[in-house]
Amino acid sequence: MDINRKKELKEIARTVRLDILEEIYTAASGHPGGSLSCTDILTYLYFEEMRVRPNEPKWEDRDRFVLSKGHAAPALYAVLAEKGYFDKKELLKLRRIDGMLQGHPDMKKTPGVDISTGSLGIGLSNACGMALAGRLQNRDFRVFAITGDGELQEGGIWEAAMFAAHYKLDRLFVFVDANGLQIDGRTRDVLCPEPIDRRFEAFGWDVQRIDGHDFDAIAAALENAKKISGKPHAIVCDTVKGKGVSFMENQASWHGNAPKKEQYEQAVRELSAQE
Amino acid sequence: MAEIGTKIETRVAYGEALAELGAMNDKIVVMDADLSGSTKTALFKKAFPDRFFNTGIAEGNMAGVAAGLAAAGQTVIISSFAMFAAGRAFEQIRNSICYPRLNVKICATHAGITVGQDGGSHQCLEDLAIMRVIPGMTVINPADAVEARLALFAAAELSGPVYLRFGRGAVPVIFDEKTYRFEIGKGVTLKEGNDVTLIGTGITVDLSLKAADILKNEGIDARVINIATVKPIDRAILLTASAETGAIVTSEEHNVIGGLGSAVCEVLSEEAPCVVERVGVNDSFGRSGAPADLLSFYHLTPEAIAEKAKTAMRKAGKKV
Fold first, then answer.
1. Are B68 and A133 a contacting pair at CB < 8 A?
2. Would you state the pLDDT for residue B47?
3. How far apart are CA A214 and CA B123, in angstroms?
4. Is the ipTM beyond the 0.90 threshold?
5. So what's the pLDDT on residue B2?
6. In chain B, what are the domains?
7. What residues make up the domain containing A235?
8. What is the distance in angstroms between the Cα of B58 and the nearest Cα belonging to chain A?
9. B101 touches A at CB < 8 Å
């Protein structure tokens, strides 16, 4: 990937992370850990890969995005705002009665949200339906989705995985944000979803496993995936929950807690100082 | 041709209407979860194989995929037995279909005890309740083959989620297919009368008409109302019945909790209280048996409805 473009993406991701923290700090509520872990994937998708028109969010030929792990909504909102779907001021009304940014993505209230999600294990089914619709309508749009790794404990994921392979939904690209943690602790301790890559392979998917914070790796994985036809694509991304904020990294306790003032200020200092 | 009095399964009428609908509307996509022969979606599959998708035995995924298809502009119809459509897929229906108000029609067959021999595990008696409670959901329970067909067409015209309930067994045709106009949310008075009102839905509409015949022989003039749309319910027809007859019997092939009887009481208790007797399955599960035997066992008969009519009249201070 072009070195200058990579620098730009890193800057965008930094801004997105700062926005996520400001959203959640202002709301005094939200999920920072899993928002920060999928920030780089989301940034890459919206700023490098997806064919979208922020000024025409319902454009029928747009690529679709499904945030199956809907609790990472602050990350999606920050990316959508940065992309220009709505005013950044909205971010400060996250989770408020007078705001349009719901605790979990709501397609009826927020421009750019392609489908309402939040209850885990359903988004992959939604993504399959969108990919199927594209085929029926002879449109060439693609569907991108992000699931959690804890979310893979939901049986519905595997119903959808079976469906996507059976119907050869090769315009479906699923990123698994494998940060290794869930509310009650380490995923491998709560109910081990590994080996995630081999499980998707066994379900008939094209699978790669990468570092989910490495833009070069994401770019390469997408290029590889596009060469494979007849199979849905899973890109299992090893990530760090709370990525970018030292005291949040790899801490399950930051799954669904908002930072206090001093913590927020420290997080901003850390993110601002990073390369 | 559906001549009045002939017996036809509402699921068969649904399947045939679905194939008609497919020809009229090319946005229609149909999905089934391995029961297409029983739900009769196979008739659509045969006519429009490119717009039919079998999800295998995975009703939750079917509802979730339907939401995705609808979000991308399709009108989606999904079918399974009521137990699995409303039961297994409840949360996908609630969160993925109804919360964003997507254009998906859940067409459930094999509702209620007339599933018969398969027994209590397969006899859904809770679906009206759990579908009715979801905001924005329209719930329709057609009484016969004619109404089943028209209800499907009306549901397809409506933008948003609809739950349609069909039965396994053949039921007599009540409506004249040449003249009947079905309208979502409108009850239909099938027989006038001012002593008592019998309100049925689905298969109990025919039972209510027969109960009215029994009552007539005893000198009681019963009004009979068909409520196909359990939600949004026809408030006006209920208020008029309360004011003019003062005694009501509801009947349904469903638990007496949460279905038609409850819906009627919710309206009347606020605006026009009168005695309401509810006939249905009394908060229990079903069991195996021949459908006719089960209807007798659970007191879903014209005789039982007629008896409750007299009870309601007595409680209302009327002479019986």
1. yes
2. 98
3. 53
4. yes
5. 85
6. 8-172 (3.40.50.970), 188-313 (3.40.50.920)
7. 3-273
8. 6
9. yes
